[in-house]
Amino acid sequence: MSELFDAVDALVASRSPLPPAEERKRLRVAHGLTLDDVAGALKVRRATVSGWESVKKPTEPRGPEREAYARLLRQLAELYPASEEPTAPVPATFTGAPAAAEPRTLSTGEAPEAAVMTATENTQTPAPAAAAPAAATRPARTTRTSSTSRRPGAKKAAPAGTPAGGADPRFENGPLAVVDVEDGQVLAYCTGGLVLDVPAKSIPALVDWTLREAKLGQPKLSGPGKDADPLLVLTEAALERYGLPVTLTEEEKHAGRIPEDHKVIKQLARADWKLTKRGFGPWARIYRPATGSERACVQLCIPSWNALDTRHWGTAGQLPPAELARVLGVYASRVMTPRGSTAVTGLELMTALHPPTRASEPDADGKRHSEHNPGSLGKDAIDPMNWPPCEVPDGHPVLKDLPRFHVRGPAEKLFEEAYDWARPMTDAECTLRHLVGIDVNMAFAAGANGLNVGLGEATHVKAPAFDPKLPGSWLVDLSHADLSRVKVGKEWVELDGSLLPSPFTPKGERPEGPAWYATPTVAYAVELGYEVRPIEAWVRYDNGRYLDGWYQRLRDAYLATMADLGVDADLAPADFLTAMDGYKARDPELAIVVSAIKATVKGGLGKLRERPRGEGWRPGEPWRALSRPTWRPDIRAAVISRTRINLHRKIVKHAAFTGQYPIAILSDCVVYAAGGPSPLDFLPYREGKPLPGGFKLGINPGLVKWEGTQDVLWGEEVRERFNAPELNLARYIKDGTVTDADNGE
Fold it and tell me: What is the pLDDT of residues 162-194, one digit of tens each?
């Protein structure tokens, strides 16, 4: 009889009810689980779980997997119930910042490191649906009334009735506010055109009002994560009102903060408010120690103190308050509330999507404890002395015993950087009329998509067998690699190797002996048909696709904003080129957001290998950034390696199919000689379809756009003028202006 009962139970379990595919994914992401996490727990393949979540054509689990999967979803549904409020429809005309950051999570400083470059992604990712582009209406300053808040009817960022902070009543006024003074009254300009009266007469009172009454902030991006603190942007008028300097002195700029004895800092101390180690600078954080789950922290952004770097935010710092609130609100809703520079925010976004800890299951007493969050980098930094010597920059503590002025070569140092390569033009190329540059969209971010990176410390191995799925650094001799005959797919092809850069060095030079390479570089050598025999390696057995969600959120932010500017993801090649022509002028404020999103990508990845920033540092001593779990130069190197390799793969396929070779490459920009001025004059489209695996015009990350066109005579003239036959023309192809000889920086 028991066997019959077991059979009945199994039959019932095989039909356990499951929510729709969208809800399955929402629940998984809300708890910070990756597809690999679920697949490992249920002992199925990653692709199987992905199929269960497929919106277009979901597959259904069977047998015991279905029962276990249903149990998982039921438990997650209890932790993360679906919002009872219906999702507001996307407006056809974008008129300001969206209501709030999306509650879902897609598996977050100062200046970005100059060495961080971009390249391209081999696999094209389909774009999400975006709002229909239209001319945007900007919120305007309003006259004061007796009410404490005003929301002009024609100035909303979302359909009527949608609160600026979305469904969460704690943040119904949005993630941030720009504080200004008008006719003696302090006003807070929020997203969506909302304006609040501010009664606070001092900075401590302003912080208290923000936390108690303003209803500013942003919901967390991941289940185990934390809500974003409210951000206040202080205009020059607000600075004067609250007793702060409008600009910093040279000494204060160098220190990055106002003096500790400033009266405002004393006011904060008397009110028991604290400042972070950063002090009271352009991005000040004012807080009280957390009590339980309640956090008391407000972030300040001061544009006149250069908080909004013009390299990344353009003229945002000079915008009127309502317009500035719109720009920062769009960025906050699509990326996250800024936590500092775009570089800092890029790094913080990684952590927000993969918090280091999570709550454990209840213990015997029913209490939960903090535990490591799988898939994250954890809460503790890697001990500086445990870093592989080949992966760290010069001056790192692990290199302190090296002789002074010792210069490490390729066999001692991992040098994965983006391309800076050029060559003289051939006689045949000189007969053509134009030099056309194409640029890869969000190339560096696309290179991070789907990349397996190390999560923990590295293990040193001697004479290992190469494993392309194992992230790490490999000492291997690739000097035998000859690009004259390579494998493209399953076929061997003959190429003119002298016209191609080596894929193994940033300068395109052929390796001369053993050198350290990241996993994607060595894997590409195998793909091209070459034998590899690593001498030694530092590998990371604890690994995962840490940057997937980071890429997806930044990709979605970029595509949605470009769609608002009239550039959709599904345009035909000619229509795409037309849409890109002058897109920034259609809405200069949204163009600022696009620039900031791009800077968040580059800066965030550059921050993974932050160098010392003064503070009396000496070579061989640790610096502040080493204490972060997110100081991970190995991840930065892996991303750059993959982006450079993916770009080279496209170049090889293009050369094999067309016989055309690049003239110059700078990071994600490639220059070809062509008979016409358009990319369509040399890209091999047939009936509107591009070369498979080659360059494709489009706005998606990894696809290319037109960068600029100059005459071949222009290229020859500037090279002759500077007596530099290999001057990198990709650096100047955009507008043709050459200010000085190419120094390679």
Answer: 333 446 889 999 999 999 999 999 999 999 999
Contact 419, 665 (CB under 8 A): yes
- Residue 422: how many other CB atoms lie within 10 Å: 26
- Strands 231-234, 294-301: pairing is parallel
What confidence tens digit (pLDDT) does each residue in 509-564 have?
999 999 999 999 999 999 999 999 999 999 999 999 999 999 999 999 999 999 99
**Torsion sign across C-alpha atoms 116, 120, 124, 130:** positive
Alpha-carbon 242 to chain mean position: 35
Say which residue the tokens 């494709």 belong to: 696
Contact 380, 628 (CB under 8 A): no
Q: Which two tokens stand for residue 514?
A: 């053993």
Distance of alpha carbon 396 from alpha carbon 405, whole angstroms: 14
- Residues contacting 541, CB < 8 A, separation 6+: 456, 459, 470
The SS3 call for residue 44 is: coil
Using CA atoms, how far residue 153 sits from 156, 158, 195, in Å, is 7, 11, 12
- Alpha carbons 278 and 344: distance in angstroms, whole number: 13
As a whole number of angstroms, the distance between CA 566 and CA 559 comes to 10
3-state DSSP helix/strand/coil % of the chain, to nearest 5:
35, 15, 50
Distant-in-sequence, close-in-space partners of 547: CB < 8 Å, separation ≥ 6: 350, 448, 449, 451, 453, 635, 639
Q: How far is CA 294 from the centre of its chain?
A: 29
Instruction: List, in order, residues 6 or more apart from 142 with CB less than 8 Å away.
Output: 150, 152, 195
- pTM here? 0.79
Question: Which residue in 645, 649, 471 sits closest to 547, CA to CA?
Answer: 471
| Contact criterion met (CB below 8 Å) for 571 and 74 | no
